[in-house]
Amino acid sequence: MYLKSLALQNFRSYHKAQFEFDPHTTVIIGPNAAGKTNLVEAISLLSTGKSFRTSKEKQLIAFEKPAAHLTGEIGDKDDDSVQEALSITISESPTGMLVKKYLVNGVPRRRNTFSQNLPLVLFNPMDLDIISGQPGERRRYLNEVLEQTDAAYEAALTLYSKALRQRNALLEYVQNTGRRDEERFSYWDELLIKNGTIITQKREELIAFINSQEKSLFPFMLTYDKSTISRERLLQYKDAEVGAGVTLVGPQRDDVIIQSYHPVSLELEDVKYFCSRGQQRLVTLELKKSQISYLTEQLRVQPTLVLDDIFSELDSIHIEHVLHMAHKYQTIITTTHKEFIMDNIRDSYAVIELEK
Hints:
By secondary structure, the protein is of the alpha/beta class. It has helices at residues 36-48, 111-114, 129-132, 135-149, 151-177, 182-212, 231-236, 238-244, 271-274, 277-299, 316-326, 338-344; strands spanning 2-11, 14-20, 25-29, 67-75, 82-92, 98-104, 107-109, 120-123, 221-225, 255-261, 268-270, 304-308, 331-335, 350-353.
């Protein structure tokens, strides 16, 4: 399967636009501020059901418009037929609430089932934050992979996040009033433990898969620094949580330590601190390669690759490696330099040119 077409209405900078994509390679060319990243965001949104750029999704609706609409067609590479029609509508209710509706072939879907229809791996310059950023960036990477492959994980993560917000609100109430309702805590604790255990188990399985993969660009290993949630640990941190006003244990506190052998000491060291920016880029590429392998193995279909302006971050040798890898999949590439593409892509490809 592949992304055959995408129509946008009142989405970010696009008032009304229609795009067609090649089953193999499509190159999106345009200067900065021409809308390349907005288009990439729309493609990712159609895949995952949420934005990778902002948690304030009201920003996705064009200024002074009531709603944004995205419609995509999923094609079959063998006979070029349309297999599925995906649709997302984002609007603001009269009360100011954001409303998102997902349709597959005209039938309403929840986000966790909608996001199973267009497997996608996105490479962009911000992915370096997986290595150099805060723990939340590494948790985001794990979620990005698992939400596309496992509806049970997505459901557990949604329920866990809801329970965590409610429990944190209770802790803030205790902090302000000194009164604690143990029955209400017990209810939310059970939800956290049940769904947190699922999240931890599936993250462990993914990390084990990544560690098992061959890493030809740069060797490294992942260590899961997990924050186990249990009745015993919640009791252990009971007083400290009231002082902090937030839950102190659970998957929201997880981290992943990315290590490689130091060339001098030969000891495992955190690549965040001792590796160069160039080496960190290679680790990021290896993580994305593992993501491709995991999606392919779990879903039994090849994902679409989106390479968003990553060539400004890589040297010619590693650009060649990425393009060779991308040759196996439908690939959508954004760049500001048309001549760069002409020099580096030898196969036929479709071009979408955007103007500022």
